[in-house]
Amino acid sequence: MFNHRLLIPALLLTAAPAAALQRSNDHGSAVIIIGQEPATPIPTLLNGSGNIAVSDLLFLRLARPGVGLSTTDERAFEPQLARSWSRRDSLTIVFELDPRARWHDGVAVTAKDVLFSFARMRDSTVDAQRALLLRHLASVTAEGDQRVVMRFRRAYPEQFYDASYHIQLLPAHLVDSIPPGPRFANSDFVKRPVGNGPYRWVRRDPGRQLELAANPAFFLGAPKLDRLVFLAVRDAEAQINLLLDGTADIFEAVPPVSGPVRLAANPAVKLLNIPSLTVLYLLFNQRAPGDRTRAHPILGDVEVRRAIALAIDRLNLARSTYGRFALPANAPVAQAHWTQGVVPKGTAYDPGAARALLASRGWVDRNGDGILEKDGVPLTLRLSIPVTSATRAIMAPQVQEQLRRVGIRVEIDRLDFPVFFERRTNGEFDLDLSAANMDPSPSGIVQSWSCAGRGGSNVGWYCDPGLDSLVDRAISTTGSGGREWHAAYARLQGDVPAVFLASPAWSVAVHSRFRNVSFRPESPYGDLWRWSVDPGRRIARDGTGATPR
Amino acid sequence: MIRWLLRRTLQAAATFAIAVLLLFVLMRLTPGDPLSRLVGDRDVSAAEIQQLRQRYGTGEPLLTQLGAFLAGAARGDLGTSIEHYPDRVTALLAARLPATLLLGGVVLFLNFTVGIWLGVRQAVRRGSRFDRWTGRFALAAYAMPGFWLGLVLVAFLSLRWRLLPSAQMTDPLLPADADALTRGLDILRHLTLPALTLSLTSIALTMRHQRAAMLSVFRLDFVTAARARGLSEKQVRWGHAWRNTLVPMLTLLGLWLPVLVSGSVFVESVFNWPGLGSLAAQAIAARDYPVLLGTAMLVSGAVVLSGLAADLGYVLVDPRVRPS
User: Fold this and answer.
1) For site-directed labelling of A172, which of A206, A501, B178, B277 has its Cα 20 to 30 A away?
2) Ramachandran category for residue A368: left, alpha or beta (phi over 0 → left; psi -120 to 50 → alpha)
3) Residue A66, φ and ψ in degrees, nearest 5
């Protein structure tokens, strides 16, 4: 058996840091925990939050939404690869590319890259989602190397957002010879991507980590965090342990209940709460479970849905699940959406009114068992939740109890996420505790709440042509569109396709030695290149530069 | 002997083929959609879902999928991962196997050195305080869930006393060009807690088997004869008695060998050890059928080969079981 008295000092000796390299005092390194491994952080291959977070550091857009995340005010956007933009008419936007912008191999970013990237990503066989988002874009042309002209088929306020946000540029000189599909996915470019962002690719160890290094020639300013390491960590305990033992610096998905309590053990880690683009809601299936040709026998009645909305105390539900860091939601609008201010006030908690409404629809407790019946059928509903979501596991029993008080029996199905997803997709549920991670644009509601969204994210099969028309008007109206969005949300509230429960803040743990810390709701690490290290609080690993390759 | 070996090898190959076919069919009968991890809670259109199904071939009929899998497997290609697209399954297995072999190998080594030594010592000092307390301690550790013991060790050795890292296989900031000694010591630091957790929770099995086998051999006449011939107690114990316990210990080793490649799902998860166990767990959670089938094939292959190796071992150490 080994001698532990000899082993432990030997192990401690190996923990000694490598000699730190001399560099500016506010430079450093960051180790970031990420729940989903970023295997392909490449535009057109993006799936999963891990890939999206890393790709934002490698590949820039033409511009990005400003601080308020307005998607309709093009003056509020921040320049990225485009230095400036102007309008020729209501259908045409002209982008002037920043002449300083370079790919990581030193080649200039030109209009050819823009044309190539838009052509590839507007191809529905390559990226069906982006092709749909860019359906109003008629043409993209170049005028010289630095000017790009985009022409739209119709005038609407989010033209600029569509033109600038959905596409991260690919280097035409490296990619145009590679056909899309499996050959691109298995190409050397995907194994060692060359981007144009503040960080460049260093290496990926599958299943372990991905490393990026600062791009010292980044045209908007050299990043001060020289080395970023993304650790792929799935286990919730391991994620927090790695922050507590000092291995990691940043974790973007701290669980709202247990996380802050455990992290208090390490005073060097601070917790930030960032407005999110997420909304939690109790979704009603409009169709009979497993048979979309028939209306749902109970939830097909809008008054029953309204009664359920009245019976749920959303404020308490949000507070008991997220503490102070969530707002009750009244529509599919998150804290960070610019339309948050125009959402009409939602249904107030009123269990008495809920009982009366149910009675008026014939739901009465005739046998005295506390559960309402109609024509001998008890008012029983099945609620699906994924076991992987701690917050939904907390919310579900509360919803169950609140509905029991008005005579509705809820049976909770705690499902493995793939089974939860499958049942949602096939419409095999009555109620479903859903979460939606949305784009900054309020127009994203088309996918979950319009007739056209059926077959995609509209798993409840809700369809109201009146709402579709109002949303279309809000999307296409000139001006801010606030009044139109208000009308659309009011219509949605009246139909009660779901009870919108809460929009949580997003809890991020960050080591307190970092300065200029900011997270963006739509792109968590989009501002990481602006961060620096407090010179007085540098730690051993801040002296280690990127691995030379 | 050669005919026996040939027959036994063919049996092993048939067992493996049946296991793979069963795994393939059962996995696809399991409820759950493999696109779930890719889509998550994002808003998606019907067109995107259709495109993803086409890319990963999950909408194809079962027989078409089976045909494609068998054709690929014949070429040594187990397909492309759904969750880690476009990584090949064989590449993922190759990347994860070393970590699992290292952890499993160290645990196996500890169990079959320390465990055997303790078992023999318990048998020699049967009924003593050492025998009683070692047995109780080992059984208590055996009864503990591995992930729980792992968390307790992390709470004290990593988070309170800061002696060892709480997770990972290497220091994330270790330079890629670090020398072999630095790299080796770094891995040793990270390996200690998971290996300790797995060994503590499993060593009792080896100890109990060894103790029982030694006690049964100690009663036999040849041991008394060896002592009567004036051999030292050490020679009697290790040269005569212990050698005759090799058959039951080989059986146990045969059962343990698959652990070398299967890894431990819970312990690998708690320590974020990048082995096959955690890869399989992720593949189950994501319904990543190609990866799941790849890991399952590796484990079933290891089980079949271990059984074959154990049978060969019996033949080598015990002339009585040699086929005529």
Assistant:
1) A206
2) left
3) -75, -170
Distance to chain A for B239, nearest Cα, Å: 21
Cα of A82 vs its chain's centroid, Å: 24
Average pLDDT in chain A: 89
CB atoms within 10 A of CB B53: 15
A425 contact partners, CB below 8 Å, separation of at least 6: A459, B33, B49
CB-nearest partner of B166 from A241, A436, A447? A241
What is the residue-level pLDDT of chain B in tens, covering all 324 positions?
A: 788 888 888 998 899 899 889 988 888 888 888 887 777 767 777 777 777 787 777 778 888 888 888 898 889 899 888 888 888 999 999 999 999 999 999 999 999 999 999 999 999 999 999 999 998 988 898 888 888 899 999 999 999 999 999 999 999 988 878 899 999 999 999 999 999 999 998 898 899 999 999 999 988 999 999 999 999 988 998 888 998 888 888 888 888 887 777 767 888 889 999 999 889 988 988 888 899 999 989 888 888 888 888 888 888 877 776 665
C-beta of residue A216 within 8 angstroms of C-beta of residue A198: no
Report the distance separating Cα B266 and Cα B282, nearest Å.
11
Q: What is the spatial distance between Cα B134 and Cα B137, in angstroms, rounded to a whole number?
A: 5
Tokens coding B194 = 């998971």
Nearest to B241 by CA among B229, B225, B223, B219: B223
Closest approach of chain B CAs to the CA of A549, in angstroms?
A: 9
Residue A477 token pair: 């109206």
- Angle value at C-alpha B9, between B3 and B13, nearest 5 degrees: 145
The answer for residues whose C-beta is within 8 angstroms of residue A183's C-beta and 6 or more apart is: none
CA distance A7 to A515: 39
Q: In chain A, which residues have their Cβ closer than 8 Å to the Cβ of B46?
A: 453-456
Q: How many Å apart are CA A531 and CA A304, to the nearest integer?
A: 51
Amino acid residing at B187: I
Among candidate residues A426, A431, A428, A472, the one with its CA nearest the CA of residue A449: A472
DSSP assignment string, A472-521: HHHHH-SS--HHHHHHHHHHHHHH-SEEEEEEEEEEEEEETTEES---BT
User: What is the DSSP secondary structure assignment for residue B159, as one 8-state letter?
Assistant: I
Residue A502 pairs in a beta bridge with A280, A328
Q: Is the CB of residue A447 less than 8 Å from the CB of residue B44?
A: yes
Strand partners, A511: A269
Inspect the interface and report whether the beta carbons of B36 and A421 lie closer than 8 Å: yes
Question: Among positive and negative, which fits the CA dihedral A488, A492, A498, A504?
Answer: positive
Dist CA A241 CA B244 (whole Å): 47
> How far, in Å, CA of B151 to CA of B267, rounded?
9
How many CA within 13 A on the CB side of residue A541?
Answer: 21
Q: Which helix (H) or strand (E) holds A374?
A: strand A373-374
pTM: 0.87
Of B38, B91, B169, which is closest to A208 when you measure between CB atoms?
B169
Is B32's CB within 8 Å of A418's CB?
A: yes
- Eight-state DSSP code of residue A540: G
Q: Please compute the mean of the pLDDT values over residues A166-180 and round it to a whole number.
A: 94
Closest CA to A136 of A147, A126, A122, A116: A122
Q: Tell me if chain B has a CB within 8 Å of the CB of A547.
A: yes
Q: Select the residue of B42, B85, B91 nearest A40 (Cβ to Cβ).
A: B85
Cβ A251 vs Cβ A33: under 8 Å: yes
Instruction: Give the span between the Cα atoms of A192 and A58, in whole angstroms.
Output: 11
- DSSP β-bridge partners for residue A227: A29, A213
Distance CA(A141)–CA(A150), nearest Å, equals 7
Measured CA distances, B261 to A190, B99, B254, B277 (Å):
30, 9, 13, 8
Optimal mutation site among B28, B37, B48, interface A, most CBs of chain A within 10 A = B48
